[in-house]
Amino acid sequence: MPNTLTLMIFSFVSNQVSMKLTLLLLLICISTVCFGQFNKKTRSRQAQSVNNNLPDSLKYSIIETSAEPANGMGGFYNYIRKKIKYPRDAKREGIHGKVLISFIVGVDGVIEQESIKVIESLFPSCDKEAIRLIQNAKAWNPGMSQGKPVRQKIALPIHFR
């Protein structure tokens, strides 16, 4: 039967080993975080090599500068507020909310008409009005990737209150 002194020594040694293992794991975690930081240049090269194998229409998934209305988003929503025609049937039914609409801004900044789609519908006449507003909107500044204008899909809410 082991005596108490032997048990105390064994307990002390096992605690020392446990503490050393804990410190070692902590050191490994910290070094992984410190030395495994995101490298922008490597990421850009990886994206470029992946993009080279895709058709031009799908080539750019990393957009450095997002497409935006020529007058900024504030100007764009001013246009929406001024030009929106709340459909009578939606008003009569007490319909209010938002239509989520998507479209593609081309490399020339023009909204590609065939790309305009309702993602989240509110009411048929509200959906049609949201589409009309986007169809008649002015050109945007295109998205940019690697210094070149690129097509970009945009999704925006159009609110009916």
Strand adjacency order, main sheet? 3-2-7
Major beta-sheet overview: 3 strands, antiparallel
CATH architecture of the largest domain: 2-Layer Sandwich
Ends apart, CA distance between termini? 84 Å
Number of helices: 5
- CATH class group of the largest domain: Alpha Beta
What's the shape? globular
SSE string, helices as H and strands as E: HHEHHEEHEEEE
Hey, roughly how much beta strand do the residues contain?
15-25%
Count up the domains. 2
Mean pLDDT: 78
Instruction: Give unreliable regions as ranges.
Output: 5-10, 37-51
The number of distinct β-strands equals 7
- In the CATH hierarchy, the third-tier topology of the largest domain is known as Fusion Protein Consisting Of Minor Coat Protein, Glycine Rich Linker, Tola, And A His Tag, Chain: A, Domain 2
- The helix content is 40-55%
C-alpha Rg (nearest Å):
29 Å
Kindly name the structural category. Answer: alpha+beta
